[in-house]
């Protein structure tokens, strides 16, 4: 159990791992015997890592907990947190650190291949450790990984507010429902949704979500709060778009920064949009995230650009 806990703004559960990035000429990739591609890079950073880095860079006191293997990928995850100054509680994972391969096309689209042999049903985050961390936290962000599903009751008992990201949920897969219905803020993508508004309203009606946000890539995002659905325009990227990897995690980080700063949902969504746009300008081989000063400066610019109409 972690000792001498300081106050934590955001406790991130799960989503630690290593990605191998391959830049391919197009997606879908036509069948061929071989392709010549640019350098293939491996770096630490999956969804939980990116949320932890994102909120930390925005000035929030951050703690990350996950199961990590005693292997080279695990060393990369540990080094990432150490170098960024992000507190990490690691639980041994016998099957080895989680890994994925990302295929990235020239227009920045991504196809991720996850190694699903890295976790088993018996893997758990220790409830006592989760409870101690949650008791010192203002908010918990839960990654969509199996060990985290078992931590949801502990978080609820601790009384901490919870957010989660359902990623490309189709609105029907049962596994996602526990996350969707136990979170106060729910993020998801419209990628696999036939009717995004219907799914968003169902999440709010069946669970405890006070806000549901569905990101829609270049179309921006949709925010459901207080029963009202609002379209949030996409923010203009500050540089050429090279990769969408981590954009959803960045959006969540920006939104949580606004939430914990006491901002209303629409302002939180603006922060999320700006952070997500920044992430699209960072190659998949990198882990640069938007800083607090950058986010606030771009938000001020957006205020000036939209002074005569709401964002």
Overview of the molecule:
Strands 5-4-1-8-9-10-11-12-13 form a 9-stranded mixed sheet, with helices on both faces. A 4-stranded mixed sheet has the order 3-2-6-7. It has 10 helices and 13 strands. The radius of gyration is 19 Å and the shape is globular. Helix 1 packs across helix 8. The chain has 311 residues and is an alpha/beta fold.
Entry keywords:
10 helices; alpha/beta; globular; 311 residues
Low-confidence stretches: 307-311
- Percent strand equals 15-25%
Task: Provide the helix percentage.
Answer: 25-40%
Structural class: alpha/beta
- Shape annotation: globular
Mean pLDDT: 92
C-alpha termini separation: 44 Å
Quick description:
With 311 residues, this protein is α/β, with parallel strands linked by helices. Helices cover 33% and strands 23% of the residues.
Topology:
Layout: E1 8-13, E2 18-23, E3 41-44, H1 47-57, E4 62-68, H2 72-84, E5 87-92, E6 99-104, E7 110-114, H3 127-135, E8 137-142, H4 146-149, H5 152-158, E9 161-165, H6 177-182, E10 185-189, H7 196-206, E11 211-215, E12 221-225, E13 228-232, H8 247-260, H9 265-279, H10 292-305
Parallel strand pairs: 1-4, 1-8, 2-6, 4-5, 8-9, 9-10, 10-11
Antiparallel strand pairs: 2-3, 6-7, 11-12, 12-13
């Amino acid at each position: 159990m972690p000792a001498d806990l300081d106050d934590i703004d955001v406790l991130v559960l799960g989503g630690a791992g290593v990605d191998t990035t391959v830049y391919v000429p197009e997606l879908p990739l036509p069948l061929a015997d071989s392709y010549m591609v640019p350098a293939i890079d491996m770096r630490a950073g999956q969804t939980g890592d990116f949320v932890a880095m994102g909120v930390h860079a925005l000035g929030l006191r951050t703690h990350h907990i996950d199961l990590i293997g005693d292997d080279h990928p695990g060393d990369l995850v540990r080094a990432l947190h150490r170098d960024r100054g992000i507190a990490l509680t690691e639980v041994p994972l016998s099957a080895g650190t989680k890994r994925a391969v990302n295929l990235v096309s020239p227009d920045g689209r991504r196809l991720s291949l996850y190694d699903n042999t890295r976790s088993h049903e018996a893997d758990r985050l220790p409830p006592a450790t989760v409870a101690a961390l949650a008791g010192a936290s203002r908010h918990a962000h839960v990654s969509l990984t199996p060990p985290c599903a078992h931590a949801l009751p502990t978080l609820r008992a601790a009384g901490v507010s919870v957010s989660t990201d359902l990623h490309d949920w189709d609105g029907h897969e049962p596994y996602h429902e526990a996350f969707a219905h136990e979170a106060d803020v729910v993020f998801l993508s419209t990628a696999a949704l036939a009717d995004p508004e219907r799914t968003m309203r169902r999440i709010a009606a069946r669970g405890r979500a006070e806000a549901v946000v569905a990101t829609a890539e270049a179309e921006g995002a949709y925010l459901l709060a207080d029963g009202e659905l609002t379209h949030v325009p996409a923010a203009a990227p500050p540089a050429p778009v090279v990769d969408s990897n981590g954009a959803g995690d960045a959006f969540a980080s920006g939104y949580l920064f606004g939430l914990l700063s006491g901002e209303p949902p629409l302002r939180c969504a603006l922060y999320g949009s700006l952070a997500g746009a920044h992430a699209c300008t960072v190659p998949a081989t990198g882990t640069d995230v938007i800083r607090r000063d950058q986010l606030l400066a771009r938000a001020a610019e957006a205020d000036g650009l939209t002074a005569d109409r709401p964002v």
